[in-house]
Amino acid sequence: MPLYQNLEALHRERKKYLGNQCGLVPTMGALHQGHLALIERAQIENETVWVTIFVNPTQFNNPSDLHAYPVRLKEDVDAIHKINPNIHVFAPSIKDMYPKQVHAELHACNGLDAVMEGADRPNHFNGVITIVSKLFEVINPNRAYFGEKDFQQLQIIKNWVKTANIPTTIVPCSIVRENNGLAMSSRNELLTKATRAEAGFIYKTLEQCASNGMKKEAIYDHITNMFAKHPTFTLHYALCVDETTLKEVAEVNALDKQRLFVATSVEGVRLIDNIALK
Ligand code: PAF
């Protein structure tokens, strides 16, 4: 079973595959179908696949969110090895990843972190880049796979890789959804059954906005009205932005690459989602 729970074991194994095309799927565990889809894609495109499982403390703003984050290493490793028993799993300790200080380094994100999740969760993306850069350093992947649910994270990582000349291709992967449309997330399991079912309205609302050629103001009004019908969900933002700059667009049009993002909280759980505007 290729499971490495410390850096020494990881280094020893990683050395054996240096000539191989290597795909990395970084995760915080509590794997769901969305993660498994990333791993399956990485399997197709690489000779060796490395999945990391590490709940990264420096990207959490809220200690209660960190403590509530689901952890189940054994089930995760079993699910990965069901896909292929040769997939390498690296599940390091905090001391391995942060030997001196549990601390997020400052990263210039070209303004991409000034909006949405970056604005609501100060230092979050510094924590993400800090851990992703440590994982890239030890695994040195040819490709790394990230889901589009965290689209802002994906753009920030792409920008970081480009700015820092990191020779890893970032592979974006489509959002995987539950039957009711809710974007898959490890946090969904923290919701009660009834709320998880109700949360399907989020994607339905996004779809209505994206498929009806609505203007920006009409989109914002529609989202406000739909959330008013689901009062236990607090809407943090709804924003139509340019996909590359993540800046709010002046108007929605079919020519530019634009995306609609929402963030909401319910039962103390933050949920985010997005959709391409056509
Ligand atoms: O998307 C995630 O699960 C995390 O932000 C990541 C990329 C694994 C870094 O901790």
Bound molecules: pantoate
Radius of gyration, whole Å: 19 Å
CATH superfamily of the largest domain: HUPs
Q: Largest sheet, order of strands side by side?
A: 1-4-3-2-5-6
What is the CATH class designation of the largest domain? Alpha Beta
Backbone shape: globular
Main sheet overview: 6 strands, parallel
Work out the helicity level.
25-40%
Secondary-structure element order, N to C = EHEHEHHEHHHEHEHHHEEE
Tell me the number of strands. 9
Number of domains: 2
Class from helix and strand fractions: alpha/beta
Q: What is the CATH fold-level name of the largest domain?
A: Rossmann fold
Provide an overview of this structure:
By secondary structure, this protein is an alpha/beta fold. Helix content is 39%, strand content 19%. The chain folds into 2 domains: 3-173, 3-Layer(aba) Sandwich (Rossmann fold); 186-273, Pantoate-beta-alanine ligase, C-terminal domain (Pantoate--beta-alanine Ligase, Chain: A,domain 2, 2-Layer Sandwich), CATH 3.30.1300. The protein has helices at 7-15, 33-45, 63-68, 73-83, 94-97, 116-120, 124-139, 151-163, 193-198, 200-211, 216-228, and strands at 3-4, 22-27, 48-53, 88-90, 143-147, 169-173, 234-242, 258-266, 269-277. It has a 6-stranded parallel beta sheet with strand order 1-4-3-2-5-6, sandwiched between helices. Helix 7 (124-139) crosses helix 8. The longest helix is centred in the middle third of the chain and has 16 residues, at 124-139. It is globular. The mean pLDDT is 97. The protein binds pantoate (PAF).
